[in-house]
Amino acid sequence: MSTQNSFLAIAHKKKLRCEKFLDDMSSVIPWDSFLAQIEPHYEEKERGRSKMDMKMMLQIYFLQQWFNLSDPGVEDMIYDRASFQKFLGIDLLADRVPDETTILNFRHLLEEHQLQVRFFDIVNELLEERGLIKKDGTIVDATIINAPSSTKNQKKERDPEMSSTKKGGNYYFGMKGHIGVDAQGGLVHSLETSTASVHDKDKMGDLLHGEENALFGDKGYIGREEKIAARVAEVYWGVLDKAARNRPLSSSQKKRNNKMSKIRSKVEHPFQVIKCQWKYTKVRYKGLFKNSMQLHTLFALCNLFKARKKLMALS
Question: How deeply is 71 buried, as exposed, middle or buried, from its count of CB atoms within 10 A (0-12, 13-18, 19+)?
C-alpha cells in the first residue's frame, strides 16, 4: 500500500473531535421527548412529511447553536462538512438538503409555539430524574449579550428592545441573560432575559426555585432587604460583600468573599460554554423574544453537554 493510501486509510478511521462531539450530544439528547413537542404543530404545516424529516430539521437547528451558524450558513456547511452529513444521516447523492427558507420556517415554528422553553424544561426534568440537578443551593449571575448599536440600517435606528448599560467603565448595548445554577453540579435550572439596563438584582427572585438552603451571587446582588429575607427563610446568604464609600472591606470580609467566590465560580461555566466554545457573543435576531428562545435552546444543550459523561454512564 502506498504512503498516500495509508494516510487516507488512517484519516478515514480517525474520528475527529467534531464527530466525537456530535456523537456524544446525539446520544444524550432526548430526541423522542423533543419530537413529541414538535409533532402536533409540524404536521399542521408540513403535511406528508415523515418523522425523520422532522428530526433532521431539529438536528440542523442544533447545529446552528453549536457552530454559531445562520440559516444560509448552516445550509452551506451541510454541503461542505462530512461530519454534518454523518450527524444528519444525509447522502448528498440521494437526499435533498433543506434550503435556508425551510430552515428559517422551522425555527419560526419553534418560536411560534415557544418550544425552546419546553426543550429547556424537558432537559432539566431529565437531569433531576437522574439526580444530576440538586436543589440544595442556587448561584445567580447575568451576562451581557451585545447587539448592533449602529443606526446604519433601513430604519435608521437601533433595536428599541435593547438598551445600554455600563460595566467596568465601559458601555455596552444589548440584552442580558440571567441564570440560576445548581450550586453542586453547576447546571442551569432557571433562565430569564431582559434588556441590558435592567439591574441583575431585579431578576434574582425569578431565578430561585424556592427550595434553596443557600444562595450565592456576586456583589451586584447585595441588598439589605434580600439578606434579611434570606435569614428569615433560613437560607444561607453567600452573596459577596461590597465595600462602601470610605468603608473598605475588613480582612474577614475579604476572606469570606474569597471563599464564596470559589463556590460562585461554577456559574461562569455555562457562560463559558455558550460564549467561548459555541461563539455566542452577539444577538442574532431583533427583539428580546427570538433571542430569548435561542438562549433557552443554548442553555438546554449546554446542560446536556456538561452532564454528557454522567448521562452516558447512566444509560
Answer: buried
- Looking up cell 431578576 gives 203
From the CB of residue 146, how many other CB atoms can be counted at a distance below 10 Å? Answer: 14
What single DSSP character describes residue 97?
P
Whether residue 7 is predicted with pLDDT greater than 50 in this model: the reply is: no
Does residue 13 or residue 60 have the better pLDDT? 60
Q: Domains in the chain and their CATH numbers?
A: 3-113 (no CATH), 134-284 (3.30.420)
pTM of the prediction?
0.91
Q: Using the predicted structure, report yes or no on whether residue 311 has a pLDDT greater than 60.
A: yes
Instruction: Count other Cβ atoms within 10 Å, centred on residue 313.
Output: 7
Helices 100-112 and 288-314: crossing angle in degrees, nearest 10, is 90
Beta pairing, strands 214-217 & 236-239: parallel
The secondary structure of residue 157, as a DSSP letter, is S
Rounded to whole angstroms, how far apart are CA atoms 286 and 288?
A: 7
**Alpha carbon separation from 61 to 3, 30, 151, 308 (Å, rounded):** 40, 15, 30, 19
Q: Is the dihedral of CA 209, 147, 292, 274 positive or negative?
A: negative
